[in-house]
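Researcher: For the record, we're logging two predictions in this thread. I'll number them. Prediction 1 follows.
Model: Prediction 1, sequence and structure:
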Amino acid sequence: MKDQTRRGRKVVPARPSWPGVEALESRQLYAAAPSAAAVPLAAAVPQATQIVGTPRVTKVTPLAGATSVQVDSAIACDVSVPNGGIDATTLTSTTVFLKRTADGLLIPAVLNTSGGGDAIVLKPENPLETSTSYTFTVTSGVKDLAGVAFTPFTSTLTTSATGIDPNVKYRFEQVDLPNTHGQQFSAVYARDNYLYAGTLTGMLYRFPINADGTLGDPLIVDTVIKHAGGPQFITGITVSPQSTPTNHILWISRTGTSGLQVGDAEGADWTGAISVITGAKMDTMVDEVVHLPRSVRDHLTNQLSFGPDKKLYFGQASNSAMGAPDVTWGNRAEHL
């Protein structure tokens, strides 16, 4: 490890020994070396130029004509996208919307898709009215990445007379916290009255948890970004069993960033890593495992966790969607 100088004081970070993590021979990193047969990234991610079909909705939840729908329900669509995923920029309030059937009142809602661009989700911003019919619409204004318009689709639903299912004992309330604005958090972990949070770009936050459950002013560091030499997608955070409120030891899983669209900042393969962050200001970072694979989209090196045996476990996601290369996922094959 290179010596570091801060404010005129030379600091040589000590690397503690964590139970369950094997010592690294000759100070080398564990690495998954790319196979010689691996397809180069540029060749594995072609632009979706060949038109093979028309994208369309294949299933909607709640089902078309459903009744007694809970007033806080979202509407989700499975879609067929034979030419590549949905162009997320075409999901707008004029192309996908929910209206009150009786008078056409537009319901304010949030729209989203999956990392693979193979779903449409509409979540009303507020609970719907009870015993009321609503019409959900997907127009031809929604397009796939090849620019092909969706087949128009509509369905109706009627909400429950009671509003919310009385048999549900517990519900979560979404509370707006002003000091979390402006970031998209991709990983969180709470321990010792702190909430640790990582972002889609690699920033790391440490919030003190107040007695009422709200969050205090965070310590914000760019340790991960500086270490990697650019933005990183923090996909998991956990805290070492040896961590204390005054000696923070974080383990993170991370990978190269992606625009999550084929041909638009696709995820570079072999950029997954497991790293440990220490120091009162979370300013020291060491990589322990590097060169893990990833998909073009959002199948990545995922959340990690210490097991009861004090060993560290993490999930490594698929390089594709269904086990075989396809255009929506950049034609990247599965590989070790």
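Researcher: Logged. Prediction 2.
Model: Prediction 2, sequence and structure:
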Amino acid sequence: MRLACAVICVLAVACDSSGSSGLDGGGDDGGIDPDGSQSDPRTIKLTLNNRPMNGAMFSFFVAYQDGSSPWKAAPAPTGDTYSFEVSAPVYGVAYGCIGNVTGTATTQLRTVTSAHFAVAERTDLELDVPSRCSDRGGMNVTLSGTVTNRPFSGVLIVQYGTRTAFVSGTTGQFSLSTPMGTHDLIVTHAVPLGNGEFYVDEALVVRDVAVMGATTRTFDFNAAQNTVYYPVTINVPMLNARALATTTLYTANDTTVGLVRESYEWSTQSLATGQMRTSDVYDQAIAVTSPGSSATITNATNAPAAQTYTPPAPLGDVGSIIGSKTPYITVQTSWPSYASTIGYVWNANQQLSADQCNGNSACTIVWSAFLSPGVSGPMPGFVMPDLSPVMGWKSAYELVNGAPIVGGVTAQTSSAGAGDFPPAIPSSGTKRVFVRSDYSVTP
């Protein structure tokens, strides 16, 4: 499962101080005894795609919780799948990793991700470990080449699978490192609009390109075709609000391409009719952000069309306090129940200086959690879990005193139903709503 790039990291729960739900999970009890335990323990399977083979390199740990019992280290996996038994009607899973994000300056990202579900809802869960926390990129090969007959202005970008390369404006050359496989290769001509915004006006599409070793190709941009534009209508009060329209193309061969990102004169886009395949999915998104809250509606389709933004109901106020400072600082959050939600995402972020990180570079600590309706109940809330008993736990994951903690809660609805949470790349026909409210607190 690949999590969609526009998707949020979040979680929620009506929890006790251990970070677990205090609810009975709802729905089918699956053989639950009167004391709340299950008569027959159930096997839970957690698949962590791209997990590191040498976990020590990334301070990687995996843990689980049976109901409200203390968190435990997960047993050794089979491949990428961890299996364990639970007797309570609800359970939690968590993993942590520390990796570097390199940009204008190197920042260490320390992340703890958890997910909480009722056994009656799901016993198999799949999450993706980010590449910054994995050592499994060693089998990559080089795809390089030249794009001829280039436009005089704009930016040419080569997209192959999830890998991106910019084309040199002077030589036309490009090079990227990619796992072996077969993907669609798409060369786009992007027109920058500033502030990270752009639109693609031409695209060269080469389907089913096999790269099984070092490969060099030449592409003639004279074969590119104009993209197709459709209008986006957003009728919201614009005072202190920012509206953003984006379109992301996902091909069946696992290539991801951003086609447009605009905060004014909004549009959605597709490839030219002759370049399209019915297996392509265009995720058309409209996001409206105001101070302290945001709302996003998305429409996944293989036949893009004009879009109109209808504001969804807001989530409402989110309240957060410091729940405890032992064994480490934990945030306790509550928020209103959201109608028809298939899940909540909660997160907390703390940006720290090098001195506060006890290292040579700045760091960001990010806690996030996915929470299903079976554990959130009618009065949703979440308390950060106590993972200190887990083998492999490190104090580097802990939030620190004196620095602001900012975060939020996102509620998701989806026409695809409960199986669409946590959200991944959507199938054609899926309509989603994400509503978020923010909070801040300083320990």
